[in-house]
Specification:
The chain is mainly beta and 211 residues long. It has no helices and 17 strands.
Amino acid sequence: MSCINVLQGTPTKLFFVAANVGTGAPRTGIVYTEVSVSFKKSTQATFTVKTLAASDFTENGSGVYEILFSATELNTLGSFIYIVNSNFTLAPPAIKQFVGQAFIESAATFTPGSITLSTNVLTGNLIDVQGNAIVGAAVSARTMSAPTILGTNPNIGGVGTDIISARTDSSGFFALEVLQKAIVDITIPRVNYRRTLTVPANSTDMLFTLP
């Protein structure tokens, strides 16, 4: 079960991973009408079925999707469990049930500079089939889920889902600084590269050698 922290009463996208029953292969191309979503707050005894709209549903690639939960749905402190299943409209095979969990925190005063983030610089080189450096290629990472970050008093710091980007230099080299232990979606369109990974707790790693 996945678990992330969210802010009370704030619309938030929570991710799920779609994998085919049987093979476990990532399932792409799913649309919002082909899944059923239910959730349970800490104050509820039973699950509530969520009515999905197209704007609530985002595909990020490699079988990873996001579902937007509203401020009302996230208005209660404590545990928030959500379940995603395929429904009868999804062409076979079905996808495995996904169970995710968030912990809803109250708003806290954030003191700038009181929180230290541990990051990992992912590096690599891009070359073409002739062995020449690919110059100016965009490399980007979107944070999809991050560990809890604690500051003083304590303060709770949230990590946004803004895209971090870099470009290769004259030798085809790039360096992308991302949060350790975060789940990130990395794309390099120039070489048709895309993968979702959990960032190792190291100061630096070579992207293309990560397992």
